[in-house]
Structures are given as structure tokens and as C-alpha cells.
Amino acid sequence: MRMINKITVGVVASALLLTGCGASGGSASKGSANSKDIASNIKAVTDDQLKGTTINLARFFGDCDDTTKNVTDMSKATTECEAIQILTNKFVAENKWGIKVKRLGGATWHSFYDGLNAALASTDRPDVTVMHGANLPDYASRGLLLELDNSLGIDLADATDAAKDAIRYEGKNYAVPFDTHAIISHLNMDILEKAGLTNPDGTYDMPTSPEKFLADAETVKSKTGKNFI
Length: 229
Hints:
By secondary structure, the chain is an alpha/beta fold. The protein contains nine helices and eight strands.
């Protein structure tokens, strides 16, 4: 397992990604191992080789050790952090090989990728990482992620179209969907009304193209002196 220098990802649309089942140590280069070789290597791993293995997991979502210690019941999860940590606890408690999970990196999303990049450049690399779908193409294009092909037995039949799109790069899957969420915009209707951008009923039509976005931004700036964002 430690011979494959790529990552597995779980995409948060979020997802969970493999940086190559055993990306710890060594360097990864694009094309260093194709998916068939990787799948073959994974299938060849024996129970004895798995016993006592430690998986390095890089994730954000925050710290919630105080509310998740020894908890394996997913119904107890009330936050994203608790959900991912309880899933981790459940895996550690139930896997038959005694595999442990070591967490790498910081807890907050805004500094997560700096830490992930540093880890990938070191010998203490993650085997599995959480990653936003928008970030996946950058890492996949550099050969840092393990392609998850059909031979690995991962069933995405019940995944939504948005989730499937988030884990795909150039027609290949590089992650397992973890969650999908909407992008929420908070609007200052007073400013939009002052700029003359509201409808007669007081609503505002959100931009659906770069051109409309930039035009509304220019209007807000010229009419109110305020920045659009």
C-alpha cells in the first residue's frame, strides 16, 4: 500500500480523495502509476499487510474532539466536524484489520490547502484528504490524486449529477462525494435599490453571467460608491 505515491480524495463539494493509497513518503509524478496498476496493487494487498496500518487523513471542518471522543453513532452528529470525526471513529472501531487514522493538518478551511501543499511536498503525506470540488482539477492535473475507476468497486449510482461533476476531471473520477451544498448570497437590498437594480416588487435578479455581474457591479459603484462585494 505504501508504494503508490498518489492521494485518495473525498470531495466536499465536497469530497474524500485518495492521494494514492499510501502517498506517505516519496514523490508523485503525473503518470507514475496508471489506474489499472493501482487497482491491481490494491487488490493484491493481503489481510496481514493491512493489520496495524495507519492511514494519514488530511481534513478541515474544525476541532470537535470534546464532543466526539469514543462516539461511533452517526445519529449523534450535529455539525460537519462531528460527522466526519464520528465516521472516522466508526471506521477505526469496526475495521477488521485494526487500522488507525492519523489526522494531518489544521482544522480551518481557509488555511487547509497551504498545509496540504506542504504535506504533499514532504515525506509525511496524506493517504486520504478532504477537498472542495473546485480545487480537485488542480491536483488531478498534476498527477497527485488516485483515479478511482470502476474496478475499485466504488458505486456512484445514487450520487447526484452535481456530486458526480465535482469529483470528475477529464472524464475520470478522482474522489468519493462527501456532501453538496448551495452557495448562499446575502444581499443588501437598500444598496441595490439605491442603485436602481431592484424590480418593481422589490426583488433583485441575481447575475447569471459574468457580463451581468460586472455590469451590476459597475452600476452599484457608480450610483452608490459602494463595492458590489
